[in-house]
Design a protein that fits this description.
The protein is α+β, with helices and mostly antiparallel strands and 453 residues long. It is 29% helix and 23% strand. It has 16 helices and 19 strands. β3, α4 and β4 form a beta-alpha-beta unit.
Length: 453
Amino acid sequence: MSADADRAEFVLRERLGERVRFPEDPDYVSAVMPWNLAFPQRPFAVVVAEGEADVVDVVRAAAEAGLRVAPQSTGHGAGALADSDLSTAILLSLRRLRGVALDPATRVARVCGGSTWSEVVRAGAAHGLTALHGSAGDVSVAGLALSGGLSFYARGEGLTVNSVRSVRVVCADGEVREASSEVNPDLFWALRGGSGGFGVVLSLDVEMFPVDEVFAGMLLWPAEAAATVAPAWAALTRAAPESVTTTLRIMHFPPLPDLPPFLAGRSVVVVDGVMREDPARAEVLLEDLRRLSPEIDTFGMRSPAEVVDLHMDPPAPTPAVTAHRMLRSLPDDAVGRFVEVGATSPLFILEARHVGGAASRRAVGGGAVSALRGEYMVLAIAVVPEPGARADAAEVVHGVADGFDAWREESSALTFIDGGVDPAAGFGDSIAALRDAKRRWDPHGLLLAAVPV
C-alpha cells in the first residue's frame, strides 16, 4: 500500500471508526455487491449509511483523505459506474436509508434516498395515488428519478424527473442543502438530470398522481408469432393516443426451476403496457393484437400496485449487460430488423418501448434533463453467465444496438447507459451548463456519478 493509501485509511478509521469497511474486512464483499452482478465493485472502502450523519461524515472524511465518494442506492446502475476508478473512492451505500411519508392532501411523497419504487407505490395505493415508477419496483427512486426515468405513464405524464418537487442532499462541501424551485434553484436544476453528480440524496419530494385503477396488462405468444405480433404492435403505437404506453419484447428464458412454467425454458413475444383510457376504448385499441390469439391475456382494470410488477423484470440480483438506441421512428424495415434480431441473436431480451408524447416534450420549469428525444427505444439485454463473459456479452448487445442506427435519434436514456458509452447524448444541450454547475458545486470532483457530466 502506498503512503497516500496508508494515510487515507488512517483518516477514514479515525473519522468513521467501525462504520467503514476495507477489502480485508469479512463483510466488505457483501457491502459492495451491486444489484447488477455483472459489474463487481472493489472500492477503496465502503460505508453502509444508517442515517444522515453517516452521509455527512463520509463526505467530509473522503475530502480529508483525498478520496472520492460514489453514492449508490441499489446498484442497478453499476454498469455505468464501471468506467470509473473506484480504487480511490468510498462506496457510500444508501440501501438502509428507507422510508416514504405521503401527504395525500398535497399528493407529495417524501422519499428517503435508498427507497425503492415499490415502497412508494404501496404507500400511494391506499389513497388512490401512484408515482411515475419505472418497469422494476426494486429500483431506487433517487437513481431513476434524477436521471430522467421512463414509466408506463411516460407518454401521458412525461419523464419521472419532472415529478420531483424538491431534493435534500449532502453537497461536496459536506453541507446539507434543500434544493427546489425556490431554494437553491440552480442546484435543483442540475440535480434533475445530473445523474447523481451534484449531491448525495438524503430524500426527495415526488409528486403523486391520482390513479385508483388503470387498464393494464400483458399479452404473450410463443416467439414464433413475433413476425405477426411485431407489425401489429407497431401499428398500434402509430395510432395510439398519449394515454397509451406499451412495450414489445422477445424474451428467451433458460429452464430454471424458479421461473413460472409459462416462461421456463421458453422463447416468447410479449406486449405489455398501460392505457389510461375508458375500458371500452382500450378494448378497441387492443383488437388487432387480440386477433392474433395470445396464449396469455391479462389486460383489464388493475390497481397501481399491480402495474409496478407488470414488466416481469428479474426479482433478484442478476448479471446482465445492455445497450440501447433511441429511434426517431419505427418503419416496417425497422420492425423486420427487430423480429430478425430477436429470433437469431443470443440475447436474453430484445425490447422496443414506445416513447414520444409528453416524454419527448420539455417540461416548463424542468431541470437539466426534462425530455427524451425519440419516438421509440430499442434495448438489448444479455445475461452474463460467468464473470469472464462480460466483454463477449457487451459486444453482442452493442452490435444489436448498432443494427438500428439507420433510424437513430441522437439521444440516450441515462437510466439505460452501461459502461463504455459516451453519456453526453443523454444530457443533450444541457451538457455545457451541467459542467459549469459541476465546477461550481463540486470543484474538486469529490462526488463520483454513475453517469458523469
